[in-house]
């Protein structure tokens, strides 16, 4: 702890600590440069770029069917929702009329993906605050969703099942039965999650009043998703700008006003219940029809800009395609939810302790490939 | 007074949490979720749509269905497929046409997206379900999918 | 000659207990987490810790550049030596107690307090700021919770009237102490379990070695056999705290319904070990269920909750004994 008087005006007794890119608790390769004074954090400086793979540049060289598989790997926990965003943007450009069957199946798969992502988030949040068994219980339930995906789409994590125009192949005959079994099973397990972690007095002491983000700050930093809804900012894209089949299901938008870590935690747990209810409303009435609207082998969008926003498990993902009439897009830009959420981390973590930083990062639910693309 | 109710509530939530894990401990042998992998290879069966590796099925007379049209090579986003073709005299009709010499597949670069299999007009390539692809030598991951001496099944091009 | 034999016997017990407690922890953790534990090396994984010990012995022991060599090498021995000293006074059965002095409990408490020096030395001598933070946190945690441990044991001494361990077990021939001193004894037991878990730096009080936070605490810079010393010492400490709990609250080597003499063919050391294993299992159950406490919450718990309740409990127990409200059989 040196006494440094540089032009940065670092006070004495503060020192820099690196929560490095390889870390058991950081959710990916994120480097945080912390300035701490004893146990209290003075400044958090994220250093990104360790997993930048230039996805947006690669999209400029690929055709429109090929850019879908790159988005799988951006936010790999909501890969189906990312694919859906790009396909909806391209279909908007081509002005295709998508059959109802495709819309309903896409919504069911999106909600299953959201459930899988929140289950993993719950397991990891427990692990970060120290309850090491929650990870295994979350993965046991997530395996059922992975098996559903593997049977229908062929892959468990990076699915690439949506293509512009519909779905790659029709759903497997066992799909409806398996989803119903899963919903029935998970409804008995979700109260157990509450009994194990949410009510626990040690957990409540670790998360109540920790990392408060006020509503004005949430709007000014541009956060979205469960982080914003935990601070009182009702910003669910599924309600405000409905897409696919969200306008024909009824679900509540969960908003809490305290803005602390416990509020964000509760928002995600209640969102899991809402996802279960959406799946139940849709699974029995999947309309008959085609699974695909045939497009030409080489898709060319007309000149112009097309934007589509969806709600991933982390927040609002925006896909912007700028096309100049060729078979490759001119520019593709992804507005990623994690990037804006990360900008609020410094403001929220200042003045807290290092143990608080870990639980705040767990409640923000970062996936670093989403931030770095 | 809330001191005592705090203590009481605190201990109650702790005991609830312990009851959840305790229940799993008691039922442990039935609820194990792990598979004992190398020992259960005989009974392990993947789903039929599982994306393991791209293969070209050959029937018993060593015929395949690949016409060398290069649709899969064009559909692949990162160049994992290379088709080596040649214009040769077709033995059945006597005319010169495009025939496939080698269908090279780079397993090391493949992202398992499935676009090549969807693009193929004759269903020549399909998914295989094996996932144990690790090797000691990286050059053995570059595979030639059509077997030596195999020819195109007659009648596929219609 | 006899002394050497006894010393060797205790070293063997120490080593075997340490190794098998580690295996037990891994199996129990696995069963909580819906998976099997180590089951490849030997039947039911019984030789797993041997294999781990062999691996640790064969590792290269390097130190850091500007570490204080003498203190760095000295630090791991403190927890081991204090653990061995504490094990020497434990009564495993009526005939098997190495050192029965008349200040038994006092000796146990004093010796376990010396163990914290090893942690502080290890953290300071590693010349690493993460180790230093971890060691300081651990030091304050152990020092604070020793008060609670001492006071809760003192509450039970009020009931027995003697500090000597074999005397305490003699008194329990009329019924275990947790039954004799009903409500205050149960409160004392709960406080002793909480404070004892904190003494050994185990979850939920394991922020010292929390892997989710910076580095690995005070044993970041230790590798090979020295790391094994710290690691084994933690498990032996757990064994010792459980043993103290069993002796003082649950009757030591006596059988449950006061029939020890009737079934004298049944070795009473098995009663002792069985009860100790149950309490050890309880501590492991805590570890795998609860999240971790933050540093200020830990101190809050001790100074605002455990200590006042302890003092009140002591007075309560004194009143109970004075009025003769104990339950004897």
Describe the structure.
The complex is a heterotrimer of chains A (373), B (158) and C (329). With 373 residues, chain A is α+β, with helices and mostly antiparallel strands. Chain A has a single domain, classed as Cytochrome-c3 Hydrogenase, chain B (Orthogonal Bundle), CATH 1.10.645.10. Chain A has 15 helices and eight strands. Chain A has helices at 55-59, 68-71, 79-94, 100-129, 134-152, 175-198, 201-207, 215-221, 226-229, 237-240, 261-283, 337-343, 345-349, 354-364, 368-372; strands spanning 15-19, 31-37, 40-47, 162-163, 166-167, 304-311, 316-323, 331-335. The model of chain A is unreliable at 1-8 (pLDDT under 50). By secondary structure, chain B is α+β, with helices and mostly antiparallel strands. In chain B, strand 3 and strand 4 form a beta hairpin. The termini of chain B are far apart. Chain C folds into two domains: 1-58; 59-323, no CATH class. With 329 residues, chain C is mostly helical. Helix content of chain C is 66%, strand content 0%. Classes of the chains: A alpha+beta (373), B alpha+beta (158), C mainly alpha (329). The A-B interface holds A 62, 65-66, 69-70, 133, 136-137, 139-140, 143, 147, 150-155, 158, 160, 163, 168-169, 172, 192, 195-197, 199-202, 297 and B 9-10, 13-14, 16-17, 19-21, 24, 33, 46-47, 49-51, 75, 77, 111-115, 118-119, 127.
Write the layout of secondary structure elements.
The complex is a heterotrimer of chains A (373), B (158) and C (329).
Chain A: E1 15-19, E2 31-37, E3 40-47, H1 55-59, H2 68-71, H3 79-94, H4 100-129, H5 134-152, E4 162-163, E5 166-167, H6 175-198, H7 201-207, H8 215-221, H9 226-229, H10 237-240, H11 261-283, E6 304-311, E7 316-323, E8 331-335, H12 337-343, H13 345-349, H14 354-364, H15 368-372
Helix pairs in contact in A: 3-4, 4-5, 4-11, 4-14, 5-6, 6-11, 11-14
Chain B: H1 2-26, E1 53-55, E2 63-64, H2 71-75, E3 81-89, E4 96-106, H3 115-119, E5 126-128, E6 142-144, E7 151-152
Parallel strand pairs in B: 2-7
Antiparallel strand pairs in B: 1-5, 3-4, 4-6
Chain C: H1 2-32, H2 48-57, H3 69-74, H4 77-88, H5 104-114, H6 116-125, H7 129-160, H8 165-171, H9 177-180, H10 182-199, H11 225-249, H12 268-289, H13 295-323
């Amino acid at each position: 702890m040196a006494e440094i008087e540089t032009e940065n005006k670092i006070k004495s007794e503060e020192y820099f600590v690196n929560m490095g890119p390889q870390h058991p608790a950081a959710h990916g390769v994120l480097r945080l440069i912390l300035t701490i004074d004893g146990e209290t954090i003075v400044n958090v400086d994220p250093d990104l770029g360790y997993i930048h793979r230039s996805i947006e540049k690669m999209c400029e060289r690929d055709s429109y069917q090929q850019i879908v598989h790159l988005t799988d790997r951006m936010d790999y926990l909501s890969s189906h929702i990312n694919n859906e965003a790009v396909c909806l943007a391209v279909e908007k450009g081509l002005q295709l009329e998508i059959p109802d069957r495709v819309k309903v199946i896409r919504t069911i798969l999106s909600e299953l993906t959201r459930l899988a992502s929140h289950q993993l988030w719950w397991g990891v949040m427990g692990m970060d605050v120290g309850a090491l068994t929650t990870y295994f219980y979350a993965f046991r339930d997530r395996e059922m969703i992975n098996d559903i995906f593997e049977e229908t789409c062929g892959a468990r994590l990076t699915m690439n099942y949506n293509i512009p125009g519909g779905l790659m192949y029709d759903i497997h005959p066992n799909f409806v039965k398996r989803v119903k079994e899963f919903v029935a099973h998970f409804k008995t397990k979700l109260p157990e999650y509450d009994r194990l972690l949410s009510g626990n007095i040690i957990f409540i002491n670790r998360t109540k009043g920790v990392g408060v983000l006020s509503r004005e700050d949430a709007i000014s930093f541009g956060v979205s998703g469960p982080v914003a809804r935990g601070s009182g900012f009702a910003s669910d894209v599924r309600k405000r700008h409905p897409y696919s089949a969200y306008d024909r299901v009824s679900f509540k938008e969960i908003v809490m006003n305290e803005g602390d870590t416990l509020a964000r935690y509760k928002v995600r747990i209640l969102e899991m219940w809402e996802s279960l209810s959406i799946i139940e409303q849709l699974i029995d009435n999947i309309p008959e029809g085609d699974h695909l609207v045939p497009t030409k082998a080489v898709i060319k969008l007309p000149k112009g800009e097309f934007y589509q926003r969806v709600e991933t498990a982390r927040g609002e993902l925006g896909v912007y395609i700028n096309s100049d009439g060729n078979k490759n897009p001119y520019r593709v830009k992804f507005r990623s939810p994690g990037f804006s959420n990360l900008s609020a981390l410094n403001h929220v973590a200042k003045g807290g302790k290092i143990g608080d930083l870990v639980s705040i990062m767990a409640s923000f639910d970062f996936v670093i490939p989403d931030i770095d693309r | 007074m809330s001191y005592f109710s705090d203590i009481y509530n605190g201990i109650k939530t702790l005991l609830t949490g312990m009851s959840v894990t305790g229940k799993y401990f008691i039922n442990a042998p039935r609820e194990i979720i792990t598979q004992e992998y190398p020992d259960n290879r005989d009974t392990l069966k993947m789903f039929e749509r599982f994306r393991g590796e791209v293969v070209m099925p050959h029937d018993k007379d060593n015929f395949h269905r690949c016409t060398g049209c290069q649709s899969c090579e064009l559909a692949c986003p990162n160049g994992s497929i290379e088709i080596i073709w040649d214009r040769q005299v077709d033995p059945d009709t006597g005319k010169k046409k495009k025939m496939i010499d080698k269908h090279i597949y780079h397993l090391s670069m493949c992202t398992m997206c499935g676009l090549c299999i969807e693009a193929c007009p004759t269903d020549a390539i399909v998914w295989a379900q094996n996932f144990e692809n690790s090797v000691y030598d990286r050059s053995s991951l570059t595979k030639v999918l059509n077997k030596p001496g195999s020819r195109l099944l007659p009648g596929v091009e219609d | 000659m006899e002394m050497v034999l006894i010393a060797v016997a205790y070293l063997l017990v120490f080593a075997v207990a340490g190794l098998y407690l580690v295996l037990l922890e891994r199996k129990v953790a696995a069963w909580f987490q819906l998976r099997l534990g180590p089951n490849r090396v030997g039947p039911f994984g019984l030789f797993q810790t041997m294999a781990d010990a062999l691996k640790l012995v064969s590792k290269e022991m390097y130190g850091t550049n500007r570490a204080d060599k003498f203190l760095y090498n000295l630090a791991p021995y403190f927890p081991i030596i204090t653990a061995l000293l504490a094990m020497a006074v434990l009564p495993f059965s009526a005939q098997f107690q190495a050192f029965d002095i008349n200040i038994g409990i006092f000796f146990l408490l004093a010796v376990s307090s010396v163990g914290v020096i090893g942690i502080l030395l290890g953290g300071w001598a590693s010349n690493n700021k993460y180790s230093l933070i971890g060691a300081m946190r651990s030091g304050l945690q152990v020092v604070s919770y020793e008060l609670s441990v001492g006071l809760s044991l003192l509450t039970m001494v009020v009931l027995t009237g003697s500090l000597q361990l074999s005397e305490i077990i003699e008194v329990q021939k009329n019924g275990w102490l947790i039954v004799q001193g009903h409500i205050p004894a149960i409160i004392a037991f709960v406080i002793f379990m909480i404070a004892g878990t904190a003494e050994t730096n185990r979850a939920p009080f394991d922020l010292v070695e929390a892997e989710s936070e910076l580095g690995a605490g005070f044993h970041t810079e230790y590798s090979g056999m020295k790391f094994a010393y710290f690691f084994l010492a933690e498990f032996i400490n757990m064994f010792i705290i459980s043993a103290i709990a069993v002796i003082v609250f649950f009757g030591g080597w006596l059988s449950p319904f006061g029939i020890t003499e009737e079934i004298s063919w049944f070795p009473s050391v098995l009663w002792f070990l069985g009860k100790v294993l149950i309490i050890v299992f309880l501590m492991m159950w805590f570890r795998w269920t609860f999240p971790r406490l933050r540093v200020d919450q830990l101190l809050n718990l001790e100074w605002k909750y455990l200590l006042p309740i302890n003092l009140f409990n002591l007075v309560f127990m004194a009143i109970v004994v004075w009025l003769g409200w104990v339950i004897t059989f």
